[in-house]
UniProtKB/TrEMBL annotation:
InterPro entries: FN3_dom, FN3_sf, Ig-like_fold, LEP-R_IGD. It is a single-pass type I membrane protein. Residues 1-21 form the signal peptide. This is Leptin receptor isoform X1. The chain crosses the membrane at residues 793-815. Gene3D superfamilies: Immunoglobulins. It is found in: Membrane. Residues 198-293, 497-590 form the Fibronectin type-III domain. Keywords: Glycoprotein, Membrane, Receptor, Signal, Transmembrane, Transmembrane helix. It comes from the Eukaryota.
């Protein structure tokens, strides 16, 4: 008794052959549509009990003994089975729908099976299961590559593909209502379940006749003959496309307009050995084409010293080849190297001298400049070029880095290669030398890959290993390379900057600085320090100090009372490597031992304005040298008026301070201050609006070119005078020569007992001096006097007359001696005469 159940096994296995024989299509049923394989098996219960052994799968089933069994045939196949002509007595009929497709990024074949029946027997239940079937014979079945899936009405089964799987065999077997199920073995091609890969590397070439040829490469995954579709559009909106179909990987484009940017794309489809057309592939990446100037060839390979000829084709018909200008690496080539082929084609011949990548560009005169297209010819000159590779190592706690930089052609796409092995001294450094050990060593590439860059950072270094570094020009087939450099990373370390700076200026005119060395590198370091006053002028230069081997320094400075900005850097103590960056700027503190003892001496300038308040500007004298140890950090100006108001202003040590004078009497006291307190001995000044007493009888000033002499007399000695103040306007320039400019007000305090004073300084022309007597309760009436320097021309004339007089006197003396010699020249000497012998002429 057979229970009314259905048990179906779906067996999927890999066909190990890459190409299946096409002698018979009976094993390739089904329909390929929309990247999906479809087949429909219709099964009928035979009444004669005969079944073709060729259509029975898995003959080892011991219970296939019934005279009644289900025999299936493929209903939607393009071919017929061997039993399609046999007579069947159909008492029951059912169908199996099978669909298969690629999923999971085309890594798996997934099949769906669904059972369909026109009339269901009473009380029948369906069970569907899958089991593996052998491809040729049971002995050849590879169980490891088979998948079985079981179910009833619906089954889903997946099978993992491998890279060489191009076909899969599928079979269905089992029981329907307790009777065996006989189905033919089926095969499907996975190539027809996937799209072909899109074409790659679109490019173009031009003939000397101006014909544009677009070419491309096929994908390695496409195994069958391909048919191509090409489209191009001149519009940025891509609303209208021109379409071409070709059977080879190139196409000719005609009647393209110069200066227009075209977008070009290509796709393909394959013709399977079952005479099925695959789906169209996706469109390739857009290729942008703008025709201004094209080059033949677009790439040239040569050696130094060999001649190279390149042709430039003008697509702009308004340009003529006779006016072409050729540039090599941006420099204009001489016209003697040009050649005009026709109206649209110009040629140039060059002879490269050095290895590397040169760019050759054809331009057209455009006013005083040249109009050049983006396109150019790449001239690969085989050999070794100097890329000036330099490296810098940075050591950190977790990883060591080395950044290398180089020089290259502006248009060159390069790869930065490196390898590391034994000591640098043991590696041959001749050009092109490659040792057996280097061949075995792993040559690595910069993580950035090929590109237009000028530096690369290598990580996880072995700082005591020798690194060989070189550049390879992309597209040069490894024949255009830079000269290798050999680097020991430990010799090119750039340390981290020192930290934790401390600096203080001391009373002994020194700046004491200390810092903490970086943790890495661990070997000895040398240091360099620079410093500059905080409140100096903008153009004040840093002062350098070093090198130092200790992490501290004591520097002699001029002013111990000002703050300094200090920075430190370091490098390896043996001179290898690089200086670190400067440390963070540190501002020194000032070491103060006591408060100032005395306040500054000061004077005033009164600016009276009838319509507004009177302004008073105080002028301060620098503190004496003995006050430098107390380091004055500020001034305190204390005001007291006749109305009883008292207030103070804190100001920085400067040359002047201005305030309004509104009361009848205004007293000012100026104190010096620092962080420890203010001065006890201070200067005072009382300003009074009432008329001033007259106490100076006369005031005389005498001047020469270098000094001014003052003298004065008093009317009386009462009341007591505290001091005298001489005031004048410093004049810049020589007024006697017709040029001068007003300067600042200068002043000088003279003791109360003095009645004369001498001031030596450069003196020009006429200047006015004012003498102020200062009392305890205010100032006396000032006295003014104008000093006139004697005319220097008179002194010069006097000096000239004196000089001429001396010259005349010397000339007269010399002339008198010469006259004596001339007068006595012809008079004979009597001592030489014979008649005068024995005569004494003295008598």
């Amino acid at each position: 008794f057979f229970s009314m159940r259905v048990f179906v096994i779906l067996n999927i296995m890999t066909a190990l052959h890459a190409a299946v024989a096409v002698s018979s299509l009976n094993g390739w049923p089904g329909v390929y549509q929309d990247l999906q394989w479809q087949a429909k098996l219709c099964c009928a219960l035979t009444s004669n009990g005969k079944a073709s052994e060729a259509s029975v799968h898995n003959q080892n089933l011991s219970h296939i003994t019934s005279l009644h069994q289900y025999q299936c045939y493929i209903q939607n196949s393009t071919n017929t089975t061997e039993d399609s002509g046999a007579s069947h007595n159909v008492s029951e009929s059912t169908c199996l729908d099978i669909r298969c497709r690629l999923e999971d990024k085309q890594a798996n074949v997934t099949c769906y099976l669904k059972l369909q029946r026109a009339t269901a027997p009473d009380g029948s239940q369906l069970i569907i299961s899958l089991r593996p079937e052998s491809e040729a014979s049971p002995d050849e079945t590879n169980i490891a590559t088979q998948v079985q899936c079981a179910g009833e009405d619906e089954i889903t089964c997946s099978f993992a593909l491998h890279h060489n799987n191009s076909s899969v065999s599928l079979s269905v077997s089992g029981f329907l209502s307790g009777r065996p199920l006989l189905t033919p073995e089926m095969h499907m091609s996975t190539d027809l379940l996937r799209k072909p890969d899109a074409p790659l590397h679109l490019r173009y070439n031009v003939t000397t006749d101006g014909e544009v040829m677009i070419a491309w490469n096929e994908s390695e995954n496409n195994k069958h003959p391909l048919y191509y579709g090409l489209r191009y559009s001149p519009n940025t909106s891509l609303a209208h496309w021109e379409v071409l179909h070709v059977q080879h990987p190139w196409a000719s484009l005609r009647e393209l307009t110069s200066g227009v940017k075209y977008t070009v794309q290509v796709r393909c489809r394959s013709l399977h050995h079952l005479h099925y057309w695959s789906e169209w592939s996706d469109w390739s990446q857009p290729f942008y084409l703008t025709l201004d100037v094209s080059y033949i060839p677009s790439e040239v390979f040569t050696r130094p010293g060999e001649e190279v000829t390149v042709y430039g084709v003008f697509h702009n018909h308004s340009w003529t080849a006779s006016k072409a200008v050729w540039m090599l690496n941006g420099l204009i080539l001489p016209e003697s190297q040009y050649q005009t082929i026709n109206e649209r084609v110009s040629a140039v011949t060059i002879r490269p001298k050095e290895a590397g990548l040169d760019t050759l560009m054809c331009c057209y005169p455009w006013g005083e400049r040249y109009k050049c297209s983006i396109a150019y010819t790449k001239v690969y000159v085989e050999g070794f070029f100097n890329a000036n590779i330099t490296c810098q190592t940075e050591q950190h706690s977790r990883v060591d880095l080395m950044t290398c930089k180089w020089n290259k052609s502006a248009w060159a796409v390069i790869r930065f290669m490196y390898s590391n092995s034994k000591k640098c001294e043991e590696i041959p450094q001749e050009e092109g030398t490659v040792t057996d050990e280097e061949i075995m060593a792993a040559v690595e590439e910069c993580p950035d890959g090929a590109g237009d860059y000028h530096e690369c950072t290598l990580r996880n270094l072995r700082v005591f290993s020798c690194y060989k570094l070189w550049l390879v020009v992309e597209g040069g087939y490894n024949k255009v390379r830079s000269l290798p450099v050999f680097v020991l990373p430990v010799n090119y370390v750039k340390p981290s900057p020192p930290s934790d700076l401390e600096a203080v200026t001391l009373t002994n005119n020194t700046l004491s600085v200390s810092w903490k060395r970086p943790d890495l590198p661990v070997y000895g370091l040398q240091y360099e320090l620079r410093y500059v006053p905080v409140h100096g002028s903008a153009d004040l230069q840093w002062k350098m100090f070093g090198p130092l081997l200790n992490s501290w320094a004591v520097i002699r400075v001029q002013d111990p009372c000002i703050q300094y900005k200090v920075e430190v850097r370091c490098r390896r103590d043996n001179g290898w490597g690089y200086w670190s960056e400067w440390s963070k700027t540190h501002v020194s503190s000032v070491y103060i031992t006591k408060a100032p003892e005395k306040g500054p001496d000061f004077w005033r300038i009164i600016e009276e304005a009838p319509a507004s308040n009177t302004n008073v500007t105080l002028l301060f004298k620098p503190l004496p040298a003995e006050e430098a140890v107390s380091c004055v950090q500020g001034l305190v100006v204390v005001h007291q008026t006749s109305g009883g108001m008292v207030w103070s202003d804190d100001i920085t040590p400067s040359s002047c301070y201005t305030f309004p004078w509104t009361e009848e009497v205004h007293s000012i006291t100026v104190m010096s201050s620092n962080s420890l307190g203010s001065s006890a001995k201070n200067s005072n000044m009382t300003l009074v609006h009432r008329p001033k007493r007259q106490c100076v009888r006369w005031f005389h000033v005498t001047a020469n070119a270098s000094c001014v002499f003052f003298s004065w007399s008093l009317v009386c000695d009462q009341p007591l005078i505290l001091s005298f103040v001489l005031e004048w306007l410093e004049v810049i320039g020589d007024s006697s020569q017709g040029w001068s400019s007003a300067g600042r007000v200068e002043w000088l305090r003279v003791t109360s007992t003095a009645r004369e004073h001498q001031l030596c300084r450069p003196f020009y022309g006429t200047e006015e001096f004012t003498l102020y007597p200062v009392f305890v309760d205010g100032e006396g009436e000032p006295v003014r006097c104008t000093a006139v320097r004697s005319d220097p021309a008179a002194y010069m004339l006097l000096m000239i007359i004196a000089f001429l007089f001396v010259v005349l006197f010397v000339t007269l003396i010399i002339s008198q001696n010469q006259l004596k010699k001339l007068m006595w020249k012809d008079v004979p000497n009597p001592n030489n005469c014979s008649w005068a012998k024995g005569i004494d002429f003295k008598k």
